[in-house]
Write a structure and sequence with these properties.
The structure holds two protein chains of two kinds. By secondary structure, chain A is an alpha+beta fold. Chain A folds into three domains: 2-184, no CATH class; 249-397, 3-Layer(aba) Sandwich (Rossmann fold), CATH 3.40.50; 406-629, Ribonuclease H-like superfamily/Ribonuclease H (Nucleotidyltransferase, domain 5, 2-Layer Sandwich). Chain A is 25% helix and 28% strand. Chain A is built from 15 helices and 30 strands. In chain A, strands 1, 2, 3, 4, 5, 6, 7, 8 and 9 form a nine-stranded antiparallel β-sheet that branches. Chain A has a nine-stranded mixed β-sheet with strand order 13-28-29-30-25-24-21-22-23, sandwiched between helices. In chain A, strand 17 (334-341), helix 10 (352-362) and strand 18 (366-374) form a beta-alpha-beta unit. Chain A is globular and about 75 Å long. By secondary structure, chain B is an alpha+beta fold. Among the domains of chain B are: 15-47, no CATH class; 70-130. Chain B is built from two helices and seven strands; from the N terminus they run βαβββαβββ. A four-stranded antiparallel β-sheet of chain B has the order 5-6-4-7, covered by helices on one side. In chain B, strand 5 and strand 6 (107-112) form a beta hairpin. The longest helix of chain B is centred in the N-terminal third of the chain and has 12 residues, at 15-26. Chain B is elongated, with a radius of gyration of 25 Å. The chains are: A alpha+beta, B alpha+beta. Chains A and B meet through strand 3, strand 4, helix 6, strand 11 and strand 12 of A and strand 1, strand 2 and strand 3 of B. Strand 13 of chain A pairs antiparallel with strand 1 (5-6) of chain B, so a sheet runs across the interface.
Chain lengths: 644, 140
């Protein structure tokens, strides 16, 4: 109904997104062209029995050059390990773009003379059926892509000039960033201004003559609660983990006291592609900035001279990296390799980063890369601020939770985040679980030997993961019964839930009670402050949550006090759904929200990309993504988190 | 156990709040959208409220459908199990206010003014109830 009505008001962009402002085309110095779209997003929800439409504002950037044009000007790099979201034109309606994922770039031998589908007409005939789009020359010249559109299981062949790349933030050029800046970090008034414009489309909404009553929801007496993590999270010695501003980085200086041991002595190595040796001073700055964050750590760092690798071909690079790894003699220290790699610019280059990361990780060598922008310059400078951000990752890579914390909420022994790495189009999928005990012991688990083949976790993999978690819990906590909360990233599909419930029942019989919660990142409305139904231009405080029904709630873990003004911006929440509660002393929704919010606050460390997700969920997400990209192995053999 | 507390009227207006609200009122970004015809606050500069007693609220619209609506889910009886979109071509749906099709399983969800007495040819009724009684979960 919503869709039918909105079609009369504006243009659809994707399933939930509708065009709010006219699209803007942006030319970049690099030759790429992009289209910026500002969209309104609508979702129907039921809150405590009343119906609402969630209204959100999104900006989307897509390439305005087709993939064929990008191939021709050398700006398109096809990597089957990296998911590429695309828009593909329809034969029937050239104005309509359908969302999809690039499945493959067909070999050059395949062109428009090839079959559009097995046993079907040629692509040339198919695309020329309504108008003469292609001649014989272009039929031979154009590349062919396979695209999975919408929920189609089979990929469809498209001429490459009918397919456009959706650009993620990493792909944005300087010019795109400048243009998009206007729509990023909006003030509450600015955001609400856009949202109000979108809400206006529902004016005069009627169903077969009967009008639908539409009102602003801020007039409704909805119950929004607040949970204060400062009272929930503690250090192991009972002192508060968070200060009044929700900061915890101050505890890093007490590292030895909190961990009962110092961080490991380090053997620092430096690896750059041939010709990039000029970056060594900047890499030294980063090394120093990282290890200086913890008192006395830098004094126990041995610096090795820079080594260079031949990156002309992948085989040469792998050979050089292999030789380098053989030469590493850490003498009881933890080897750490600092590298500087230029991002891959064209299709012909291979991607050095995952190759290097994987080879080093397999040998238990910690890897810290810095993106090079030229032979003489790194993207980030080795400042104290950057060092502070990177030391947290460095500690996790070395197997330390940067600051151990205690979270006693809900009498939960372990909180565990489970995620599935969505790989490239033709690859299997990695599942990973990251667990933390109530007193801050952290470890990862993977279903070794059971690679995933779909978007769900199969029963065998689930048994392997839960077995690994429970086994480790038994040895860490030295007890055989306990309460485990599983946070499943995204919606838990019904068949996976059925498998999970069966397995959960079996565990309950042996004293392990498991609560299964789905955490959905999209679809939750923004939170703003209103006074007497009028908007207040102030970000709400961290830690609000709102029940939707007996088992579901929205929670907003970000907000004031911001880590830096405007960062993170207007709270963007997530949905939690209790799929299966504890059999004994079930978690109340308030406990569940408090637990998730506290775990999220334990991971909010720096202003730029602080997550709104619980710590283990966030870490599982990072690990699964890296496993999916092939930059770290599919099995975790220790408590280190190389993707941190 | 940690229970959340209801966010309510907060605190007295401090001088800091006052200066902030003055800044807001003077803001060059003051809104200038026209009144939209909704029940609710008029949109314009008066939209920007004072900080005193401000409470957080999600950004959404409340909707109220006309009374007496029914939702009916039909399942295709196509022996070849073709997608619902094709099945509808041979076995049309009854008159409805709005409908939605599921690809797999092949189903149609209808919004009706009154419940169906019997299943239309080519379909079987899976579920039927007044709107609001059979709500989907908030699967987003």
């Amino acid at each position: 109904m919503i869709d039918t009505h909105l079609k009369t008001r504006t243009t659809r962009v994707t399933k939930y997104d509708w065009e709010l402002l006219p699209p803007v085309e942006i030319d970049s110095e690099t030759g790429t062209k992009a289209i910026l779209r500002v969209c309104a997003n609508f979702r129907h929800v039921t809150v405590q029995g009343t119906e609402y439409i969630v209204v959100d504002i999104r900006r989307k950037v897509e390439s305005s050059s087709s993939i064929q044009e990008e191939i021709e000007n050398g700006t398109f790099a096809w990597d089957p390990n990296i998911e590429v979201r695309v828009k593909a034109r329809s034969v029937a309606d050239s104005k309509r773009l359908r969302s999809g994922k690039l499945h493959s770039l067909m070999p050059r031998e395949v062109n428009l003379h090839s079959e559009a589908w097995d046993g079907g007409v040629s692509l040339l005939e198919y695309w020329n059926q309504l108008e003469e789009l292609y001649d014989l020359d272009s039929a031979e010249r154009l590349r062919v892509l396979e695209v999975k559109v919408g929920f189609q299981r089979k990929a469809t062949r498209y001429p490459a000039d009918q397919v456009y790349r959706v650009m993620t933030m990493e792909n944005w050029s300087k010019e795109v960033r400048t243009e998009v800046a206007e729509f990023l970090n909006l003030q509450p008034t600015e955001f609400f201004d856009f949202a109000t414009k979108a809400m206006r489309w529902f004016r005069g909404w009627a169903l077969k003559g009967s009008s639908i009553n539409v009102e602003y929801a801020q007039n409704d007496p909805l119950q929004v609660f607040q949970s204060d993590s400062r009272k929930v999270l503690q250090l192991p010695d009972g002192r508060p983990f968070l200060n009044q501003n929700f900061r915890w980085k101050q505890h890093l200086s007490n590292f030895e006291e909190l961990h009962s041991r110092p961080p490991p002595s380090i053997a620092a190595y430096f690896l750059v592609p041939k010709g990039y040796e000029g970056l060594i001073d900047q890499l030294h700055d980063h090394c120093k900035a990282i290890f200086k964050q913890i008192p006395g750590w830098f004094d126990r760092v041995v610096i090795h001279p820079v080594e260079s690798i031949d990156t002309s071909t992948r085989v040469r690079a792998e050979a050089d990296i292999g030789r380098f790894i053989e030469s590493v003699e850490p003498e009881g220290r933890q080897p750490v390799v600092f590298s500087a790699i230029l991002p891959r610019r064209s299709q012909d280059e291979f991607n050095l980063y995952p190759v290097l990361k994987r080879m080093l990780t397999l040998k238990d060598i910690v890897h810290q890369n810095f993106e090079a922008v030229s032979q003489n310059s790194l993207k980030a400078k080795g400042t104290d601020f950057v060092g502070h951000v990177n030391v947290l990752g460095m500690l996790l890579k070395c197997g330390f939770l940067p600051v151990p914390y205690v979270c006693e909420c809900g009498d939960v022994d372990i909180v565990c985040g489970i995620d599935i790495g969505r790989q490239g189009p033709n690859r299997s999928i990695a599942a990973v679980a990251v667990s933390i005990t109530r007193d801050g012991k952290l470890w990862g688990t993977t279903p070794e030997g059971t690679p995933q083949t779909g978007e769900t976790i199969g029963p065998d993999a689930l048994r392997n993961i839960l077995g690994g978690i429970v086994g480790r819990f038994n040895s860490v906590a030295k007890k055989s019964s306990g309460r485990i909360v599983i946070l499943r990233d995204g919606n838990t599909p019904q068949h996976e839930l059925q498998d999970a419930l069966q397995i959960l029942n079996e565990y309950r019989e042996i004293g392990i009670d498991i609560c299964w919660i789905s955490v959905l990142k999209s679809g939750t409305p923004r939170l703003l402050k209103f006074s007497d139904s009028k908007l207040v231009n102030e970000i709400p405080e961290k830690g609000h949550w709102m029940p939707l029904n007996e088992t579901e709630a929205w929670f907003w873990s970000t907000g004031k006090p911001e880590l830096k003004e405007g960062r993170p911006g207007i709270p963007q929440g997530a949905l939690m759904r209790i799929e299966s509660n504890f059999a004994e002393r079930p978690l109340e929704l308030s406990e569940c929200a408090t637990l998730l919010i506290a775990q999220a606050h334990a991971s909010q460390s720096q202003p730029w990309n602080s997550t709104r997700l619980p710590f283990v969920h966030h870490l599982a997400d990072k690990m699964a993504k890296s496993m999916g990209e092939g930059s770290i192995p599919l099995s975790l053999k220790n408590d280190r988190f190389p993707a941190a | 156990m940690h229970e959340g507390h209801l966010v309510g009227p907060a605190r007295a207006l401090s001088s800091r709040d006052f200066s902030a609200s003055v800044r807001l009122r003077n803001s060059a970004r003051a809104l200038s959208l026209p009144y939209l015809g909704f029940k609710g606050p008029r949109l314009g500069t008066s939209q920007v409220g004072e900080m005193m007693n401000a409470t957080p609220h999600p950004v959404m619209l409340k909707i109220e459908l006309p009374p007496g609506l029914h939702v009916c889910t039909l399942v295709s009886l196509d022996p070849k199990n073709r997608p619902a979109k094709q099945h509808v071509g041979d076995f049309p749906l009854p008159n409805n206010i709005s409908y939605n099709l599921d690809y797999n399983p092949s189903r149609a969800h209808l919004l009706l003014n009154q419940p169906l007495d019997s299943a239309p040819t080519g379909w079987t009724i899976q579920a039927q109830s007044p709107w609001g009684k059979l709500q989907p979960t908030n699967q987003i």
